[in-house]
Amino acid sequence: xxxxxxxxxxxxxxxxxxxxxxxxxxxxxDACLERIEEVNPxxxxxxxxxxxxxxxxxxxxxxxxxxxxxxxxxxxxPTGIKDLEETKxxxxxxxxxxxxxxxxxxxxxxxxxxRAAGAIVVGKTNVPEFGAGSxxxxxxxxxxxxxxxxxxxAGGSSxxxxxxxxxxxxxxxxxxxxxxxxxxxxxFCGVVGFRPSPGMVAVERRAMGWTPISVLGPMGRSVADxxxxxxxxxxxxxxxxxxxxxxxxxxxxxxxxxxxxxxxAYTEDFxxxxxxxxxRRTFREKIKAMKPFFRSLDKVDVDYGDADxxxxxxxxxxxxxxxxxxxxxxxxxxxxxxxxxxxxxxKLSLADFAWAHGEQTRIFRAFQQIYKExxxxxxxxxxxSPFPWKQLYIEEMDGKKLGTYYHWMATKYFVTLTSNPxxxxxxxxxxxxxxxxxxxxxxxRGDGEVLGAAHAMEQAFKTNPVLARPLPNIAxxxxxxxxxxxxxxxxxxxxxxxxxxxxxxxx
Length: 507
Description:
By secondary structure, the protein is α+β, with helices and mostly antiparallel strands. It is built from 15 helices and 17 strands.
């Protein structure tokens, strides 16, 4: 098998072939490194790398296979870690000039679990500064371009992971999600992103441990790939008060779901989120094409009340907690998104905070009522087609000015407020021939069920050109796009020494 063919195989298939000795972890790593060298200059998805260590780990993984050892779930799979997660002896910048030379002396909980499952960390994947924003650009590494058009953005904040997966640079990548940071880039790049229920994956770096809006989760080129990674991430840890005991094996494969038995509700805008007219039109076409697959597919009204204000407050309070010292001591080194969130939080009162948590509770309870009649809720993942990476965010829709820099992400943060698990599933293309993402929202704590349903949908969609996952033109991506690094003002210090003590991290 050629290297070109090898990198296109799913994580599940690669892991199977490693176990049967059909391919070697060394062979796979070489193929991934070659693809990164060829394609990364066009999308700027992979940032700091640890090639020498990865080669040593691949050789050790190969030796373990030859000895006939029991192999963990991710054994020998090259992996990208989102650059918000601390990785031992590997530059972790959070996309911030403040940490362009920060090399942790430890792996955080999630990274250590992925490593323990046999994953070979090859490098980090690009993010917006501290993960704030859904356009993966920062002054340390530059911008990540969309694999379908590098002059458009890849979404964020897990944009680097999404682009690396879409271009077959890496078979496994991690992500995280507050207001859509897993789901938005997955939709923009034509891959799968899963926002799990809070507590499923322990989050060590969350400053406010009892606040559930920020979660860690998996990304992949298929739902089965996502399940494989997810099974290595889940479980209780004493750093996260929301985490709880789980049986990882229960999530290693998609649960069997009979698509024809599902009662599905759909909404174009999740009760008032900004959604462009062309996206609404595209979504209606998708609904028409997928209706025969389900027992029923009905339009429902969703009442999210004052969800925008609610999310504003809860998000801002988290930023206030995390970035107090950075704002007061190094404000000039922070980008506009971090400053905007912090200053909004600084203006809030205890009454605002109390109201927001009360409103979130009301939203949660109202949303769960839908599941008395339906098994799933679906809608567009993103209300807009990918836009130029030079544009920081969407400022208006249909001539109407939007609110905050993240208001265009409302289709996702409305769901965040409910805490229901949600998958962004590739679903053909939009009017502009860019990937279209379908947001599939499951029952409260129904993580296994929603992944199973998404897998069944994915399999059904494969045979329909209107619904099938689109693929980028890799040949066109072999030409570098220097403009993506034109915004670098504080380049990384690649030879930095290991730091002592933890960094503040991100939400």
